[in-house]
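Review form for a predicted model. The reviewer records the input and the model, then writes brief findings.
Reviewer: anonymous (R2)
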Amino acid sequence: MFSVLIFIIVLAIVGRWVHGWSTAGPALAPHYEAEIARLRGEVDELSAQVVRLSDEQQFMMRLLTSGENRADPELPPANEETA
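Model under review:
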């Protein structure tokens, strides 16, 4: 019973933190709003790059794991004239 009460209190605090402590906040200056918009764009670009890198990593891991089943090719015999 006590743990349920604690859970509800924590859930309420997290909900207030996520949705903001007050409904009306102070207005930001226009240069701050422009900077926030620029930062949001940068974050969107970074998240797209992270997704791309994650896809590339999954592809490489798939290639590496599928290559384990193949036998290693033997090297051709060395040419004594070039050695």
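Findings: Residues 13 and 71 are 58 Å apart (CA to CA).
Further findings: The chain has a mean pLDDT of 80.
Recommendation: see findings above.
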